[in-house]
Design brief:
141 residues; 4-stranded mixed beta sheet; 3 helices; 20% helix; alpha/beta; globular; 30% strand
Length: 141
């Protein structure tokens, strides 16, 4: 990973009280186990661009070079995967979504050919909800 790995404290995946910015659905967890078995350690990047750029992209860990403006939201623990899966987001996208809890999910269909799940006939997507006042306080927002 690049030097962009340094994330602001408020961008971390969980506060001391346990509030997280991001979670995985059961379907995403299952798919990540499959992808890990085929490709080894994994990472996500969410660019916030148009079209497929608005979907989280899954890569072999380190294959997508993060930059200084990227924010590390979390190192996701995935049951059955020995190492955490980093979830990065472009800084501009994080500023727009910092008030939301994100859940990585899976739906049928083809996403980007660059994301590892594309040949499986499914794609990752983000579901979101606004943080509660208590969650925002836990995260220091």
């Amino acid at each position: 990973m690049s030097s962009g790995e340094k994330a602001p404290a408020a961008a971390g995946g969980a506060a001391a009280e346990g509030t997280s910015r991001i979670a995985l659905s059961a379907a995403a967890t299952e798919l990540l186990r499959l992808l890990h078995d085929r490709h080894g350690p994994l990472m996500f990047h969410q660019s916030g661009g148009c079209c497929d750029g608005s979907a989280p992209m899954c890569y072999p860990a380190g294959e997508f070079r993060t930059g200084a403006s990227d924010v590390l939201l979390a190192r996701l623990a995935v049951e059955g995967v020995p190492e955490p899966v980093g979830f990065w987001m472009s800084g501009d996208q994080f500023e727009r979504w910092r008030h939301t809890h994100l859940t990585v999910d899976v739906v049928p269909g083809r996403g980007s050919g660059f994301s590892l799940e594309a040949p499986e006939g499914v794609r990752f997507l983000i579901r979101s909800r606004l943080f509660t006042d208590e969650e925002r306080a836990d995260l220091g927002d």
